[in-house]
Amino acid sequence: MPAVRRATAARRAAGAVLAGAAVLLASCTPSTSTALAPRGLEAAADGWHGLPLEPGTTLPTSPLRTTDGRTVRLSEEFAGTPALLFFGYTSCPDICPIHLATIASAMTTTRTRYDQVRVVFVAIDPARDTPERIDEFLAAFDRRMLGLRGDLDEVGAALAELDLPGPVVEGPDPRGEGDLIGHPAQVIGFDATGAARRVWPFGARRADWIADLPRIVAEWS
Fold first, then answer.
1. Which range among 31-45, 72-86, 131-145, 161-175 shows the weakest confidence by mean pLDDT?
2. Of the N and C termini of the chain, which has fewer Cβ atoms inside 10 Å?
3. What is the dihedral of CA 190, 85, 156, 68, to 10 degrees?
4. Which residue has the higher pLDDT, 176 or 7?
5. Domain ranges for the chain
6. Residues 41-94: pLDDT tens digits?
7. How many CB atoms lie within 10 A of CB 4?
8. What are the φ/ψ torsions at residue 21 (nearest 5 degrees)?
């Protein structure tokens, strides 16, 4: 399939996420990273690289917890500030670290502050994703990213509010680190009112974020 057609197909599929028509679910396997990471996202006519979402979805109201034990509701915690929300797990071999490293690098390059765009990682593997492990994991990218956790029901409730599936055990991790877990592989962008505006599927590159982060600050704040 030609590159343009592939990009168009990916844009249509991702654009349907949160609208109830489709879901991007990916298991964390090295082959996924190899297949998608070089592609990047095709810029739309309006210049955005993130894929547009149909209106109506907002930040979840379901309670989660910070790594220091504070209970937060995303809909309240990030009122007034754009936020990037990603569900993943600390043992993920590729999707999670690639997304977070790419965002962190682009934040530095564009001089985007973490109080201008909040970057939020919600851990979906409570058995392994302890508060200490989440903090250590995020510190490898930037300590200013916010890590949240909850039990499976709490995380599942937050995912359900976004019309996204819960985590799925995919089988043993060949690295010997427990199980691989399938989870939504996209980063969701919310504006300062809490409305979901755009989504960046796995495969978004640093250049995509460098193009979009300044617009998030300028247009979503």
1. 31-45
2. N
3. -120
4. 176
5. 3-220
6. 888 999 999 999 999 999 999 999 999 999 999 999 998 999 999 999 998 888
7. 9
8. -95, -30
Distance CA 185, CA 207 (A): 19
In this predicted structure, what is the pLDDT of residue 171?
61
* Element at 16 (helix H, strand E): helix 3-16
- The β-bridge partners of 52 are 198
8-state DSSP, 195: B
In order of 47, 61, 136, the CA distances from 210 in angstroms are 12, 30, 26
CA distance 105 to 37: 15
Could you say which DSSP state residue 178 is in?
S
Q: Which CATH superfamily is domain 3-220 in?
A: Glutaredoxin (3.40.30.10)
- 3-class DSSP state of 51: strand
Q: Which two tokens stand for residue 67?
A: 């790594």
Closest CA to 193 of 71, 100, 65, 56: 56
